[in-house]
Each structure stands twice: as structure tokens, then as C-alpha cells.
Amino acid sequence: MSDDPIGAAPPGPRVAWHAADPAADPVAAGADLLELDVAFSAELEPVVHHNYLLEETAWVHETPLADTGCPTLRDVLSRLDGTGLPLLLDLKTAFVDPAAAYDRVVAVVTAAAMTDRVTLVNWDHDAGAAAARRHPGVRVGLASRWLGRDVADLVRRSGCAYLYIDWEYLTPGLLAAARAAGVEVGTLEGWHPLFYERAVAWGLPVVLSNDPAACRARLRQAAGH
Hints:
Blueprint: E1 14-17, E2 33-40, E3 46-48, E4 53-55, E5 58-59, H1 65-68, H2 73-80, E6 87-91, H3 98-111, E7 118-122, H4 125-134, E8 139-144, H5 151-158, E9 162-165, H6 172-180, E10 184-188, H7 194-201, E11 206-209, H8 212-222
Parallel strand pairs: 1-2, 1-11, 2-6, 6-7, 7-8, 8-9, 9-10, 10-11
Antiparallel strand pairs: 2-3, 4-5
């Protein structure tokens, strides 16, 4: 894959609120979109929770919903409905049946009439591809520390519309290939000062940040605004 610089870059990246607080106001936080982690209770109820663990010795997937203390995805989507913001849902399916988990989430998203705003993201590429085939009306994304395969081939095989890749492995060529394949790329805000300059110059579509307002200010500064 070529690493030649991308030509005309699109407008600056959109900023996603990484692991957003479901009780906070995302618009006031400066987010263009939200990233929520979705785990699953013992009943396979989708809940919004950042980790697989509730405590050091309590797994979400082994805990009844009433004892998790986590808001359900259903309730969070209901509260966010009026914001109009797109959502990236990072599904934690490592310890549950991924097909059943996807189906439960799709049912919740469909009932909330938010399929046009939601992307279901998973680190399990086979599960994501299978979900895309079962639910063609739902946008599916894949996550990877790095991408060791051709982007166009991955999109063709998986049907994904979004890729998360760790920022250390992003290149201009990869972003150009993703753009040509019609796929958005997102990455977590990097610690290196050059991250913001590269995000702007390379036309990175989405930056995930724990502080959207501060991230946007750094991106604007890198763009010379």
C-alpha cells in the first residue's frame, strides 16, 4: 500500500467523545459524535459500561442486570435521542455469544429508531462481518490495533463502513485507501504533539477523545485557526 501523501484533505476531523459519560450532556462537552462501550449482563442485556469488569472480581457478563448498577443501552439511547448525534457503539463480546449479542443490540437500536445514526464496532472481525450479513440495514465497524491487510479487501469481505486503528499505525496511504473504499477511519487521540498536525494534514475523519473540547482546540491550532 502506498504511503504517498493524500491530496486534497477534507475538513478537519470530527471529534468523538471516547467512553462518553451517558449521564452528561454531549453537546455541552463539544462532541460531534459519541463512542459508548456496550457490555452485556448475565441475561445478555446490553448495558453501557467501559470494561468487562464491574469490580476486580465481578464480571459484567456473569452479573444479573439488577446487580450491575449500569444503565441499559435502551435507556441511554432514549435519553440521547434528542441530541441527533451519531453513535459509535463498541461492543464487548469476548465472553458472550457474539451473534446473540449483536442481535440484542440491533433490536434495541431498531426499537429506538436510531439505525441511521449508529455504528456497531467490534474487535472480532468475523463477528462483525457476520452481523453485517444478518443485518444489512445496520452500519458495522471493525477495530484493530493495526491493519495488516488490504483495506479494500477487508471492506469487501466484511461489509464494514468504519475502521478504528491505533494512531501509531496510521499512514497517509492507509487513509487514502480507506477513503477510496468509502470507509471512515477513527483513532484515539494520540499523546505525541505531531498527532494533531498529522490528523489535519492527512484528513483523518474521526478522533476519539476523553475531552472533546480540548481536542478540538488542539486540532484547530494545528490547522492554523
